[in-house]
UniProtKB/TrEMBL annotation:
The keyword Transcription regulation does not apply. This is Amidohydrolase family protein. Residues 79-286 form the Amidohydrolase-related domain. Transmembrane segments: none annotated. It comes from Mailhella massiliensis. It comes from the Bacteria. Pfam families: Amidohydro_2 (PF04909). GO terms for molecular function: carboxy-lyase activity; hydrolase activity.
Amino acid sequence: MIIDFRIRPPFGDFLSMGPFDVKASGFDPDYPGQMYGYIPPRSVRTRDISVFMDEMDAAGIDYAVVAGRASTSSSTFSKGYVSPDVVYELVNLYKGRLFGVAALDALDPQAPKIAERSVRELGMRGISIEPGWCSEPCYCDDPRLEPIYETAASLGVFVMITMSYLLGPDLSYSDPLRLEHVVSRHRNTPFLIPHACWPHFISMSAVSFKYPNLYWVPDFFFYLPFMPSVDIMPAFNTALKKQVLFASSYPVRGLEEAVRLWKEKAWEPEALQLSLSGNASRLLNLKP
């Protein structure tokens, strides 16, 4: 079984985001960076959700987590708003196959109320914030975000916090030290980190060793062959094997490509199985 823990499919408001809107986003696949060598899959070119679901089947992905977006970043590539209601609409089209995560504007005073409605009424499995992409970039340990974390704890859901060199004015916004301040205060809440604080993988490892409620969602920062991820494999195969989640981060890469590249890493069999499905099943409360 394979569970993809972070997708943004060709549906509704997702289609206004790059790379679905290549002209608006302005990214160049020949430019050095995370999009280097990008070959858009057919579902991106056709902007067709049914084609995407066929690609899920072809990649052997059984379930996927649809993460909304509430980014006011100045970057046209990352900027976008996909409401919990849009995610709910999509998830219900493919009920039992897709699971929703509600995106919140981290600095919106109404964010805790939106989170509560999203979980209680719309059935969202977790909430997602991207502090570095707020209109006023902030750190994940900003006191103004504490009501969001407290709400997640009261609802019993996980929190996704996207952190990497892409978010925020400088690398301090992806520093795992800031993350430690949060996970240490909320030890019963799972915190899932898309991009996994790259390039701070060593510091991220240290914080993860201390706090088992901290999960890596390293997506393309791990599986792309030109990313420097070799050093983390010993930890992924041993002490951190229960804290790693596979995610394609589609449409940044196609599903089949992501699965193939993930499996090509130097995994021990048990650790690979946990990363592809075991850990995700536990977080989503799926029966074996």
